[in-house]
C-alpha cells in the first residue's frame, strides 16, 4: 500500500519547504520530496537559495566586505591593520558552515511540523483529481500518493549555447561560490544580479573583474536614476563593466578562458580570463517530472503554466516559485507557497506582486519596490518624485557610508506611493518600510509625518518622502 498524504510537495527550496510547513500548520498530512545532496550524499534541503544561492552568496558578500573594510576602510576610523592576509579556505569553510546550519534548520522544521521528508527525485506517475501517484527515486525509493500536489522544483542556471558549465573554468553560480585561489582575471558574462554580486565578492578579494553585458543599458529593470548612480559607484570601485557587447566564441583550456566578443562600437575584441562566470538568467526545472503522464501543461518558455492563484491546468495540482512565471526570488516563492497551502484549506491566500521587494546585495545595496520612473512615464501616470542623498544623513556620515540616495515616486493627485528606490547602505533593510507603506496604500505624506529615530538611515526615507512635497529639512 502506498503512503498517502493530503499534500505532497515536490522540491524543498524556499517555495516548497515553506508550502509544506504552512500545509502542516493547517492540519494536512504533508510530505516534501527534495533531491539536493550535501558533499556526503546526505539531504540538504533548502534548494538553490540555501545551497548555492541567497545564503552562501550573502555569507561571501559579508566576508569579502569585512576583508575590504580591514584593508581599505578601517584606516579612516583610526584603526590600522598591519599584516592583513586572506585565508580563503577558512572564508569558504565558514560559508559552507552557514549553509549547513540552514540545511539542518529545515530538517528540524520538517520534524517539528511532522512533515514526512523523502530524499530523492519526485516524478508524476499517474493520477487525477482523486489523487496523484508520485514516484520517488534516489535515497528514498517508493511511490506515494497525494491528494494535492505542489510543484516547487525551482530553476537552474542558463548556459550560453555551446558553452557548458564545467564548474572549473566555466562557472555557474555553483562554481562562482567556490573559487580557490582568487583568480587574477575573472570574466563575468551578464551584468545582472548574480554577475554584480559575485563580481563584487571576487573584486574585493583581489580579482580584476570584467563584466560583459549584452544590453546597452545597465540594470534595465532598475529605476534609471538609481541604476546610473549604481553604475558610477561600481566603476569607481574597479568593476570593469562593458555594456552592449555581443558574445562570440568562448574557448577554455586547462589554464584560461578566451572570450571573443564585439563591443558596443562594433569592434571585435578578445579577452582572456583565469575563470569565467556565466550569469545570464535561469531556466525552470521541469525535466524528469514526467508531466506527460498526467498532462500537466508547461508554457511556451518551459515554466509550469499557472494562473494568478498558482493553479495549474490539472485539478489539485499547484506550482510555486522559480518554476512558474514572475520574479525568481526566494521571498516570492515563499509567499506563493503559503498562499497555495491556504487556498488548499479553502482560505484566500494572496500574493501582491506589486509589493514584492527586490534587493541586489552589492555595496552599496540596491533595493526597490513598486514602479520605476520609466514605467510610470510609459504608463502615462502623473507622478511626483522626491529624492534624498545619504550624503546629507548624519548616521550615514557616522558610518562612513554616504553613497547613494532614497527616491520616492508618488501619484501626483492622490499622493499614494507608487514606487520607492534606494541605492545606499542597508537598502535591503530600509526597503521594508516602503513595502509596508505600499501594502497599506500609504501616501508619501504619511511617511513624511511619521517620527523616525535619530540618527538613523531611515531618516533618509522620511526626508525623501518630504522631498516629494519639496520640503526636505536637511537638504
Ligand atoms: P529552488 O530553491 O531552486 O528549490 C527547488 C528544489 O527542488 C531544489 O532543491 C531542487 O534540487 C529540487 N528539485 C528539482 N526537481 C526535483 C524533483 N523532480 N524531485 C525532487 N526535488 C527536485 N533570491 C532572493 O530572494 N534573494 C537573494 O539574495 C537571492 N540570491 C541568489 C543568489 C544566487 C547565486 C542565486 C543562483 C539565486 C539567488 N536568489 C535569491 C534566487 C533564489 O535562490 C530563488 O528564487 C529561490 O531559490 C527559488 O526557490 P524555489 O523553491 O522555487 O526553488
Ligand atoms: P539576471 O536576469 O539578473 O541577469 C542576466 C543578465 O545577463 C541580464 O542583464 C541580461 O541582459 C544578460 N545577458 C543575457 N544573455 C546574455 C548574453 N548572451 N551575453 C551577455 N549578457 C547576457 O540573471 P542572473 O544574474 O543569472 O540571476 C538569475 C536570477 O536569480 C535573477 O534574475 C534573480 O531573480 C535571482 N537572483 C536574485 C538575487 C537577489 O535577490 N539578490 C541574487 C542573485 C540571483
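Sequence proposed for the structure above (475 residues):
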Amino acid at each position: 500500500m502506498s503512503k498517502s498524504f493530503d499534500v505532497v510537495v515536490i522540491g524543498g527550496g524556499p517555495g516548497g519547504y515553506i508550502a509544506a510547513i504552512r500545509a502542516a500548520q493547517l492540519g494536512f498530512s504533508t510530505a516534501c520530496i527534495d533531491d539536493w545532496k550535501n558533499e556526503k550524499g546526505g539531504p540538504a534541503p533548502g534548494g538553490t537559495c540555501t545551497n548555492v544561492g541567497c545564503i552562501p552568496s550573502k555569507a561571501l558578500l559579508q566576508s569579502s566586505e569585512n576583508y575590504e573594510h580591514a584593508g581599505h576602510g578601517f584606516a579612516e576610523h583610526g584603526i590600522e591593520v598591519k599584516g592583513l592576509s586572506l585565508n580563503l579556505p577558512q572564508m569558504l569553510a565558514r560559508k559552507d558552515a552557514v549553509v549547513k546550519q540552514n540545511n539542518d534548520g529545515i530538517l528540524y522544521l520538517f520534524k517539528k511540523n511532522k512533515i514526512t521528508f523523502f530524499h530523492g527525485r519526485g516524478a508524476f506517475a499517474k493520477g487525477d483529481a482523486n489523487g496523484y501517484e508520485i514516484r520517488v527515486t534516489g535515497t528514498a525509493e517508493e511511490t506515494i500518493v497525494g491528494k494535492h500536489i505542489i510543484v516547487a522544483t525551482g530553476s537552474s542556471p542558463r548556459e550560453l549555447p555551446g558553452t557548458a558549465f564545467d564548474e572549473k573554468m566555466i562557472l555557474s553560480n555553483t562554481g562562482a561560490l567556490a573559487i580557490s585561489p582568487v583568480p587574477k582575471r575573472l570574466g563575468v558574462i551578464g551584468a545582472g544580479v548574480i554577475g554584480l554580486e559575485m563580481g563584487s565578492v571576487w573584486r574585493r578579494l583581489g580579482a580584476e573583474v570584467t563584466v560583459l553585458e549584452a544590453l546597452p543599458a545597465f540594470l534595465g529593470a532598475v529605476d534609471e536614476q538609481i541604476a546610473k548612480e549604481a553604475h558610477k559607484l561600481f566603476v569607481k570601485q574597479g568593476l570593469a563593466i562593458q555594456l552592449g557587447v555581443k558574445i562570440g566564441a568562448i574557448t577554455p583550456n586547462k589554464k584560461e578562458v578566451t572570450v571573443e566578443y564585439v563591443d558596443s562600437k562594433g569592434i571585435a575584441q578578445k579577452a582572456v580570463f583565469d575563470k569565467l562566470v556565466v550569469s545570464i538568467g535561469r531556466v525552470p526545472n521541469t525535466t524528469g517530472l514526467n508531466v506527460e503522464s498526467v498532462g500537466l501543461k508547461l508554457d511556451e518558455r518551459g515554466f509550469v503554466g499557472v494562473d494568478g492563484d498558482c493553479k495549474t491546468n490539472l485539478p489539485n495540482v499547484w506550482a510555486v516559485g522559480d518554476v512558474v512565471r514572475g520574479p525568481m526570488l526566494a521571498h516570492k516563492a515563499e509567499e506563493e507557497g503559503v498562499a497555495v497551502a491556504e487556498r488548499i484549506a479553502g482560505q484566500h491566500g494572496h500574493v501582491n506582486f506589486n509589493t514584492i521587494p527586490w534587493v541586489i546585495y552589492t555595496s552599496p545595496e540596491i533595493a526597490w519596490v513598486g514602479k520605476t520612473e520609466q514605467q510610470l512615464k510609459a504608463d502615462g501616470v502623473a507622478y511626483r518624485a522626491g529624492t534624498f542623498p545619504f550624503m546629507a544623513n548624519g548616521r550615514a556620515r557616522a558610518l562612513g557610508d554616504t553613497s547613494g540616495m532614497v527616491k520616492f515616486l508618488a501619484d501626483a493627485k492622490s499622493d499614494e506611493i507608487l514606487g520607492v528606490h534606494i541605492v545606499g547602505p542597508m537598502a535591503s533593510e530600509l526597503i521594508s518600510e516602503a513595502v509596508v507603506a505600499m501594502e497599506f496604500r500609504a501616501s508619501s505624506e504619511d511617511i513624511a509625518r511619521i517620527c523616525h529615530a535619530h540618527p538613523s538611515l531611515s531618516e533618509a526615507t522620511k526626508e525623501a518622502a518630504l522631498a516629494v512635497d519639496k520640503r526636505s529639512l536637511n537638504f
